[in-house]
Design brief:
Layout (H helix, E strand, L loop, with lengths): L1 E3 L11 E4 L2 E4 L4 H13 L5 E2 L7 H4 L4 H13 L23 H20 L4 E4 L21 H10 L4 E5 L6 H7 L5 E8 L24 E6 L5 H18 L3 E6 L18 H10 L5 E5 L5 H13 L5
Parallel strand pairs: 1-4, 1-5, 5-10, 6-7, 6-9, 7-8, 9-10
Antiparallel strand pairs: 2-3
Helix pairs in contact: 1-9, 4-5, 7-8, 8-9
The protein binds zinc ion (ZN).
Length: about 325
Amino acid sequence: MNIIYSDAHNLHQPQFERYDGKDVPYAETAARVDSIVQALQAHDFEPLQEPEVFSISHILAIHNKNYVDFLKKKSAAVPEDQQIYPSDFITDSYAPVTKGTFQASVAAVNTALTGAKQIAAGEPVVYSLCRPPGHHAAHHSMGGYCYFNNAAIAAHYLSHYGSVAILDIDYHHGNGTQEAFYERADVLYVSLHADPNTNYPYTTGFADENGRGSGKGYNINIPLPKTTDTESYSTVLRGAIKEIENFQPRFLVLSAGFDTYVNDPIGGLHLTKGAYRRIGRHIRDMNLPTLIIQEGGYNIADLGGLVSDLLDSFRPA
Ligand SMILES: [Zn+2]
């Protein structure tokens, strides 16, 4: 399995996020990636590959140019070791901007696009270890630790070669990804996530959001109760997989979040460590060319093991 990774994520180092009016330590840290890299090395996965550099036009296919220019300018202007909440193009207090935020976010997009290019060229499965994550990044806004929507940009790239299904298994609804494809019939978005009545992003992710215009029927949201365990998650996931199989996509993009893990400090369904191997097997059994894109997951001690378990399901026996 090809694994794409860029050191440039280290350029993005916010220290705090604002929760309930207070500054608390930033949860989406570089240490998350260290945990993943260490686990992959310990389990003899393939060596990490540097991403290629792609044209900014791929980002502009999903994001508003004024937003992209704004983030570039704001990011460059932040003094070293400081962070700001910009005045515009931001939806919440979970997307501070530091000096390296733009560069790291572009590198994460390149990481996703390199995987997409390999999948288009015939690789059966590629893991793009993206940081910052992307699925909350919308057309003209950052939010929820996300700046550019890595999965949406990769899915759009792949859509030039054939239809794409995006399966989002992060704890949170991928509002940015839903928005990107809400009126398109060539990209199906299916998301399993915690009930937005009581969970971020609160305003999207409800079951009645099923697409608009020619995209009607190509957006499937499956909100889950917090008490969902490995068994009930598996059952729901198999239903989601059936929907994807009916769509008959040429490619699958997996927005792989691990904040569904029971001991995740931010999310946390009742999924135990063994869940991710099982989830991986269900997805692998679709036998689709699969681009796996890293989204959330905040239990640093266990994150690497969870990722390694999921990826291991895709390795040849
Ligand atoms: Zn999440």
